[in-house]
């Protein structure tokens, strides 16, 4: 069943790097995604950072008239990590509350390249979808083949039966920010005929 919600009525959570020491190709992708989200009226939810890809994404969205909702734990504000120009800011007490609120408010999740924090957020939202707790699209932006090793690991999990082969549809992989918009416009609701905790015949 295809999702009928207009792209212009949705909010997406974007996971991405806070490092500023990375190749310009990744910054260009983040800036392009910000432009596309703004042009299509898609609100962005993220960790409210002002540095790295998150800062580039936020700056691009705001410059193009887009909407950004930042969700950030209090200790990161105290550390001076927070972007000061976002449309909306939600302060949480813990990282766990932050991630749960991001998922709750989003209609889709997008992972740009990133470090351990991004990897942890991506793994968690994929796990939630595997468990049926998050049935929305999860899109991996594989700029410059960044996620190739992780995708190979996913394949190994399936080959060796650690992961059901049908879970390959938990995520969509795209190579450019422009493809993300197409994914948001054309995705099917996650209603697998199997589940991690489905009842089995004895």
Indicate the topology:
Elements: E1 11-15, H1 24-39, E2 43-46, H2 52-63, E3 68-73, H3 74-78, E4 88-92, H4 95-105, E5 108-111, H5 116-130, E6 138-141, H6 148-159, E7 172-174, H7 177-185
Parallel strand pairs: 1-2, 1-5, 2-3, 3-4, 5-6, 6-7
Helix pairs in contact: 1-2, 1-7
Short description:
40% of the residues lie in helices and 15% in strands.
> Element order, helices and strands?
EHEHEHEHEHEHEH
Mean pLDDT: 90
Derived structural class: alpha/beta
Spatial arrangement of strands, main beta sheet: 4-3-2-1-5-6-7
Outline: globular
What is the helix tally? 7
- Specify the helix fraction band: 25-40%
Query: How many individual β-strands?
Result: 7
Instruction: Evaluate the radius of gyration.
Output: 17 Å
Distance between the termini: 31 Å
Q: Could you describe the largest sheet, including whether it forms a barrel? A: 7 strands, parallel
Low-confidence stretches: 1-7
Strand fraction band?
15-25%
Features:
202 residues, seven-stranded parallel β-sheet, globular
Task: Characterise the protein shown here.
With 202 residues, this protein is an alpha/beta fold. It contains 7 helices and 7 strands, in the order βαβαβαβαβαβαβα. The protein has helices spanning 24-39, 52-63, 74-78, 95-105, 116-130, 148-159, 177-185, and strands at residues 11-15, 43-46, 68-73, 88-92, 108-111, 138-141, 172-174. The protein has a 7-stranded parallel beta sheet with strand order 4-3-2-1-5-6-7, with helices on both faces. Strand 1 (11-15), helix 1 and strand 2 form a beta-alpha-beta unit. The longest helix is centred in the N-terminal third of the chain and has 16 residues, at 24-39.
